[in-house]
Structure formats: C-alpha cells, structure tokens
Amino acid sequence: MRYLEREISKGRNLEEAIPKFVVKLMDVYNRYSYVRFSMNYYTFYEILEDYGEKDNTLSSLYDTFQGIVEAMLHHPGEEELRKELEQTEKLRNRITELMTSLTNCVDIFNIYEYCLNRVEYNYKDGSEFLHGADEELTRDVLQYILQDRDQVVINGKISEVLRQLPIRMTKGHFFELLKEGMKVYRESEKGSVDDFIYMIRTVSMLDISENTFALFQDVEGVYKEFADTDFSALDEEKYNNLSAKLQYAVNEIQKNVDLYMMFADVVNDLYVILLSSLHLMGKDREDQKDEDTCLVLIQKEQDLYQGVSYEDVYETLEDGFLYLEGKQEKYSETFQKFGYLIDLIQESYPDVIRQLSMQEVFHAFERISKLVSGSIFVEFEEHPEQREIAGMEKKKKKYQALEQELNTFFQNHPKNVNRAVMAHILSELPVAFGSVEELKDYILNALSGCRNQAEKAAAVQILTSMQQE
Around Cβ 324, how many Cβ atoms within 10 Å? Predict the structure, then answer.
C-alpha cells in the first residue's frame, strides 16, 4: 500500500493506482469488521443470556438481525447483499430511536433521583455533614476543582459541582444565566446551536413523548408516580417506597442501555461487512484465512443462539479467538494510516473518480469511516444547512422558544422538581466564571443561602464524596 500511496500522492498512474488502493483498503475494513463482529457477537450473546426474557420489541429486532446474519453466512450475491444492507440500515435506525428513548429515561430519573436525594436527610441523621463552616467547605471544593491542570477536567468538575449545589435563585436570574450560556454559540453553526438546545431540552424533561417509555410500561408507571409526587410532603414510608421504585427503574433502564449499546455495535460491524463485501465482489483479494476463521466462529455463535450447548462449541471458539488475537489492532492501524488517502482522492481527483465510475464506492468509504470511528450512533447523512452560521436572529428565536417552554414547565411542576431541572441545566452550560473568585463566591452563596438542612446535608455529603473519590 505504500507504493500506491506514493503514486496517488504524486498524481501518477491514477487510473491504475486508485482502483488497486480502493480494493486493498476495502479489504482491510472488511477483515477488521469480520474480526470485530466475531468477538462482539459472542459478547452480545452473553449480554442477552443475562437479560432474561425478550419483550416483543427486542424479539422482533433480534429475529431481523439473526436473519441478516444467516444470509451473510451463505455468501449472498449482489442483489441479496443490497437487500440485506437495506434491512441492516433500517434495523440500525430503529435501535437508534430506542436508544434516544432510553437516554430520555435516564435524564428523567436523574431529575427524580435529585429530588429524592434532597429530602433523604429528613429521615436520616445528617448532622455530620452540617457541622463544618461554609467557608471551609468552599475552600475544599475549590481545591478539588483546581487540583488538575487540564482545563477540560476542571470545567467538568465545575459542572458536577454546580449540579449538586443547592439552587437558590429567581427564575429571572436563572434565565439570564441560560441566555448568557447561549452567547458562546454566537458564531456557531446551526447544528451546534440545535445540539445545545436538544441537550437542554432532554435534561429538563421537555421531550417526554408517547415513545419515551416504548420499551417498558412498568417503568412508565414509576415515572407517573413520581410525576404526581409532592416531595415537600413525603413521609418516611412514601420516601422509602419511591426510593425502591427508583432503584428498580434505574436498573431496568441501565440493563436496556447496555443491551442496545452492544446491539448497535454489532449491527454497525455487520453493516460494514455487508457494504465492504458488496464492493469486493469479483475483486482479487489476499489470503482469506481471517475471513474464513471468522465465518466459522460466527456459525458456532449462531449455534449458541439457537440452543447448542457451550461445551459443543467451546474448542472451536477458543481456537478461533486465539487465532484472531491482535488482528483487530493490526487492521485498525492500517486504515488509520492510509485512510486519509480517500479524502485526498475525493478532493484532488474528482474527475478521475467519475471517469472510473467509482462514485458509489467512495460514498461507501464515507459511511464505513463513520461506522469504525467509535461513535456508535453516528448519522450517515450530513445536512449541509446545519453547517451554516446560525446568526443572531435564529439564536434569539431558539432561545425565546426554549424560555417559553421552560416557563410553562416551571408553572406546572413543584419547586423541588424545578430546582432539580435548573441544577441540571446550569451544569450543562458552558463554564462562564471569569475568575476563581467568582466561582468561590457562587459556591459560598449557594451553601450559605440554603436554609433547608436536609437539602444542605445532601449537597454537602455528595460534594464531600466527590472529593474523596
């Protein structure tokens, strides 16, 4: 590949060098994804075994997935490959939709966990967290934040601290801080502004819909109970009951998050296998021992899914995984080293691509590079309009709409929930403190301004544990 790299970089023999390079790089992606799929497929099997009985949604998706894998094992022709690719993309999109619902659920129960945490010490002794001076705790928290030199780490710690501090501010002040946070996006692209608005909406429970709890009705029941709760009037029995239900909901959500993250990962590997195989059909390739080994492994893993005992496939799996050791890293190193040439060819030699009728294969490379980037839910298609600078008028309209929705939310929810939402939003805003002194004053004022001893004890307990960790 180094020879082809030199030829392409110097613009020599392009009609010969580009097709040869394309086949070699596509072959590397193909092998890489076969190896990853072989390994991740077994991990997915283990997660499914621990998951328990599949619901209708998972069963349907799983059956579709298994059908595509079965088709892949039988070396489909071009027409069948294109059909399976289309099925795989639909499967991927559906899993992405479900993960969006799951992350919304995570945000929702983060809010209610915050609310429960702030009343916990109404039923427990929190005096050990209240004997220290506010100034002393402020100093300790500042030291915790500033002990790192990396500004990204420091900003992350500031955000975590802001989320845990008691909220004592008017809605007017809160909206001023939100508006100030948006100023960072003054010269930003539309996509960045929309991402920021989306993040604020999700952490503030503005995006709850009929699809949010699509995966589990019982967790929706827990949500509705929390939504009807007056946290300022809880007795200990009700608090304990809600705590147990919260833990159940969190466990169910996390179990599904782990499952669908792994599911999406193996589907991405499968998509790359199918797409790269499509563009390698009829091409001269190097030794296919790696692919053959992976196909044997995948067949044995299919057998496991279909009820064959582990003992019957153990030896084949062990030998196969041993043979593949180090292969993934080897192929990853290769495409990371030579992948840049795809961009170079597209930018420098578009006429040659058209002359060789290779537009489709370069489009395939764009998708493959995204799928192997490590971003599991990356979108395939880019939207050029999202790269345009948003402009002040657009940001103003976006902010006004967001403020109106939040105002309506605050009017319809109790103070405990509103404070939880404010805390989570503030922690997501760009860090806006002009100096360490400003940060110190904010922390001290938040602590000293809190007259609710249970809430303060909870905040101090969490801030103290953060420092200890």
Answer: 18
Orientation angle between helical segments 14-51 and 56-73, nearest 10 degrees? 140
Sign of CA dihedral 75, 78, 80, 85: positive
Whether residue 48 contacts residue 258, with contact meaning beta carbons closer than 8 Å, is answered with: no
DSSP structural state of residue 387 = G
Q: What is the pTM of this model?
A: 0.88
The pLDDT tens digits for 244-292 are 999 999 999 999 999 999 999 999 999 999 999 999 998 877 778 899 9
Residue 11 phi/psi, 5-degree rounding, is 70, 30
- 294 SS3 class: helix
Has residue 225 been placed in a domain? no
- What are the tens digits of pLDDT across the range 317-374? 999 999 999 999 999 999 999 999 999 999 999 999 999 999 999 999 999 999 999 8
Q: Which residues pair with 410 in a beta bridge?
A: none
CA–CA separation, 239 and 235 (whole Å): 6
Q: Could you identify the residue written with the tokens 């709890």?
A: 213
Residue 173 inside a domain? The answer is no
Amino acid letter at 33?
Answer: S
165: exposed, middle or buried (Cβ count in 10 Å: 0-12, 13-18, 19+): buried
Range of the domain at 330: 2-101+256-379
**What is the rounded average pLDDT for all residues in the chain?**
91
Q: How many domains does the chain have?
A: 1
| Whole-number Å distance between alpha carbons of 394 and 397 | 5
- Asked if the structure places residue 336 within a domain, the reply is yes
Selection from 374-378, 384-388, 390-394 with the highest mean pLDDT: 374-378
| Residue range 156-171: mean pLDDT, rounded | 91
Residue 447: name the closest of 199, 222, 22, 161 by CA: 161
Beta bridge partners of 389: 189
What b-and-e string marks burial along 241-270, b requiring 16 or more CB atoms within 10 Å of the CB? Answer: ebeebbeebbebbeebbebbebbbbbbbbb
* Tokens representing residue 462 in the block: 């969490």
Residue 93 lies in a domain: yes
| CA distance between the termini of the chain | 48
Q: Distance between CA atoms of 145 and 154, rounded to whole angstroms?
A: 6
> Is pLDDT at 298 greater than 90 in this prediction?
yes
- Give the residue with greater pLDDT, 351 vs 189: 351
